[in-house]
Amino acid sequence: MNKNEFAKIVLESTDSLYHISKSILQNDADCEDAVQEAIATAFAKLHTLKQEQYAKTWLTRILINECYNILRKQKKLVPMSDYETEAEYETDDYSELYKALLRLKKEYRLTIVLYYLEGYSVKEIARIMRTGEGTVKSRMSRGRKLLKSILEEENAYEIIS
After folding, report:
1. How far, in whole angstroms, is CA 119 from its chain's centroid?
2. Most CB atoms within 10 A, among 96, 99, 101, 124?
3. Which of 102, 114, 111, 99 is nearest to 139 (CA)?
4. Is the CB of residue 128 less than 8 Å from the CB of residue 60?
5. Over the stretch 60-115, which tens digit does the pLDDT of each residue have?
6. 28 near 90, Cβ under 8 Å?
């Protein structure tokens, strides 16, 4: 794959990459940093891409790794209580569904975002997350159940209030 073909894939995938990073990081600035760093890393290591048809999947995996690197750095630098307060503050403008998604564990949230919002297949998600297809299916099932209960809980709370 040449650099022009890769650039085309990057341009087509920018929104998707941002959504995926947002499901892990929540902070807009961190998401932008992760996407930029993932693109730069992928561009520098383009020669290591073995199968061109998996370029977007490969780029997504690099992005996920970069998001986790940012989270690791934040754990060292910022007390968790400060980070949670910041994350809660930033979600004030988002929908109830997005807020409910944030309450899921990362692996459930990421699987649901990749499948339902970004349109990846179970097989592609398994490749991206380096896990089995059965694991992806069970995470989607558990994630949907948890999401449903969170949304029902919030809805019941609003009715009572």
Report:
1. 13
2. 101
3. 111
4. yes
5. 999 999 999 998 888 766 555 544 444 444 445 567 888 888 889 988 999 998 99
6. yes
